[in-house]
Input
Amino acid sequence: MNSMKFFNFKFFKENCKQAKGLIIFFLGLLPLITIIVLIQQLMSQNYVQDFQNYGLATYFLSFLIPVALALALFGFVFKKKSVDFYLAQPLNRKTIFLTNYLGGLALLLLIIIMNTIILAVFGAATELVLPFKMLLDYFVYFTVTYFFIFSIVTLAISLAGNFITSLILSILIIALVPFLKAVNWTYKENGNQIRVYCNAEICPIKNNQDKEYHYLYMQYDLANYNFTTPVALPFIADFRVGDVVRTMILTVIYGLLAFMAFTRRPMENNECSFKNNFVYHLVKCLTLLPFGFLCFSYLTMGNYSGWLIFLVISLIYFLAYDLIAQKRIKPLPLVLFTFIISMSLYHGVYALWLQTQTKDIYMKDITSIKINYNDLDLVITDPDEIQTFLGEGLNIDGRDYYSYKAKIEYHKQTYTTHLNLPGESFLTDYQKKHNLKSNVETTNYAKITDAFVSFWGNDLKIKVDKKLINLLEKNKTNAIQEKYNFATLELYYYENHEFKHISYNVGRSEELANFVAHYINQEFLKHQKNFNFQFINLYNEEATDIYEQVLEYFISKNPADFLKYLKVHQNAPITNHKYIIAIAEDGSLKRTFAYLVSDSTTLENLYNEYLEKYANDPHVQELITECQENEMGIHEY
Amino acid sequence: MIELKNLSKSFTKGHDVLAGLTCQIPDNAIYGLVGANGAGKSTLLRIINSIYRADKGQVLIDGVDVFDNEELKKEMVFVPDDLFFFSSYSLYQMAKFYQALYPKFAISFVLKEAKTLHLDINQNIASFSKGMKRQCALLCALATKAKYLFFDETFDGLDPVIRKHFKNLLVKQMMKQDTTIIMTSHNLRELEDICDNLGLLYKGKILFEGEIASLKTDMVKVQISLKGDFDEKTFADLDVLAYKKIGQVATLILKDGPLAKKKLPKLKPIILDFLPLTLEEMFVYQMEALGYEFNEVL
Output
């Protein structure tokens, strides 16, 4: 009676033992690269990144690790010797497949888990913002990606007879859909147009013979083709739950197909390409797809010499394919025949498929225009305003304009296009007119998880606690007061698989401004031991009676007095707009820290004390003279 | 008992490697499978060991289908002609691999025999000679204590001393437990001193098979000289497979050995010698009787 075991742990253990070098390498490689990337992000103060940025190394290694692992576990089918050895063991094919397949998945899972833990540790121990939800997205996204590629390569190995053919087949399966999608998008993206017919007073350009109607051309994007996998090539796709689920389903399907292919595989099919000639030629012709597209592109551009050159290159490739895959050249008539048939077919298919479209729509029948501005969706439904928006888009000659992505709804169809609108104030005015609230005013600040303030070249992480949230919530509708407008808080929370970001000017509230100023100053004082005061820089915000160069000189001679002054005044409230920024570099971190001297009057007293102390210092006199001659000492911003 | 029922296998259209092969291999036998290059010997062994799937037919062991049967395969071990070892593995590590899969694997046997054969168990097998690699493969196979051992031209490349040593090991194993051994070769002389059963594979079928002992006792080679003239007709009442006379001495190959031993002395021969037949001679005359040219077959 056949064994019903699915997994033979001893066999898996032995497989791991004999491939341990490779496994250890992969277990170490990705975490190492990830750590390097994280340290780089930390050093560059890129604290907030989407998981795609953190996962760039993981993404690119998805084309190496699962591929190499699949080859290590299943590549024995390519050689007669190893086939004899493995299949003669007291294991049935199902056990061999399931042990290697599930074991491979487990190893990949381990790699992703290790990497996720590293990200979590960095998130917990440094300023890098790595919320749990993002870590979960990273984990799910890349686990699915790695499983997906592993399953595809396993399927390819189970079908093919040698390494090269299995690689070609894997690339075909992985890349075919993204390639076709990219072709479709690239080719049609700037080709599809809508002709928006409108009244003469709105559309001054007379485009046709009809006196009543004029029209403007607008290019529109393709309908969103959502069926994609995380392996979007050549970039990491966004996290879309639908895509992830689809990829998981595909992974299961490929896994099942691989299982069937492996258990039914004629094991004498090794050291060759495909046993079945038809399948061999089919795969070979499919690899000609990108060549066919390139040839077709040249043809449609009217570049006949380019078309011919590429045709010749394609033919050379077609001939070389047999040499690489089967180590022999097929009869030339057969090669030429299949080449001509394939290329003709592709030219025909591309000609039919890649046709750009022009659609006619009437402005009066447009039901809405949706524009995303400042993280808010503006939905314009009033017909007059629709006409204004579209009309403004035409009158851009000689004016500053911004291009906004817009969705035009017409007869229940949505066209994604771009509207050129004059200046940012156009939309801001629209917002005000309709009492539309900005994202600062509409955000629920209880969701905020991370806050940063960028102050004079340094991003400081501010602890998000109840006090800060209350301050933000309380003052969100306030107007910005100029005297407190010295910094902007960058606030973040992770939702729907991406970071939401709000820029909140501290000038909305005296209390908030002081809160942030004190925070900034405390950070400065924390690092003062690592400052070299020889290189301190001062900047005045407003005119004062302090010569900066002179004060810098004083501080370099006697930093203690200055530090003492700073410590005493670190909690002094901002009373006016006259403040001085002191900037110093932390030598060990190579980061600058700034101190906001809120009360310049008191600093002037310190300055005068210094003047008295160093009255006889000739260098001081020189500096004062120099400043007076050049009217320096006062930097105006 | 191993039963091969109507096995067929082809790799390319129109060319059958095995064509309806039917055969029974008794238990506790050392069965030699002989045939020319490309006769299908290795393919047959691979089908029995579930490496290849037969296009038609079945392989049964004690009535149970062998294909992909894990439990049965624990009692089977196959040593192919082209050996495989994990790269950078030593004999010890290979033995550990087998031990993980074969429940009765005796690693002590490997260690003991390796010492006898002066094989360093910790040295990388890749650095061994061809003969030493074969010894490693044989040791691992014997150590599995499997009931069914399959050797595909495995004893090629072994020197006579080592070959004798392994033969003794095989015999010892057979004395301790039920063991059936099937080995292939294209060299009859090599099989002769190991096997007790032989089968000849030709054009995808077993052309001829049987116990060597009975083959040998059935057939007999005689050198005889009689007084006076004599020719082949003198021996008409005996089943003569071959007759050759040089001078007054004739050499006969007779199918029925016991009958010959009864009747020939009655002719009052001057010379009467019963000579041993080699396996090759036996096969030659059997196949000629079946209408085949020996050189065509082997």
Notes: The first strand of chain B starts at residue 2 and ends at 12. Chain B has eleven helices and 14 strands. Chain B touches chain A through 28 residues (CB under 8 Å).
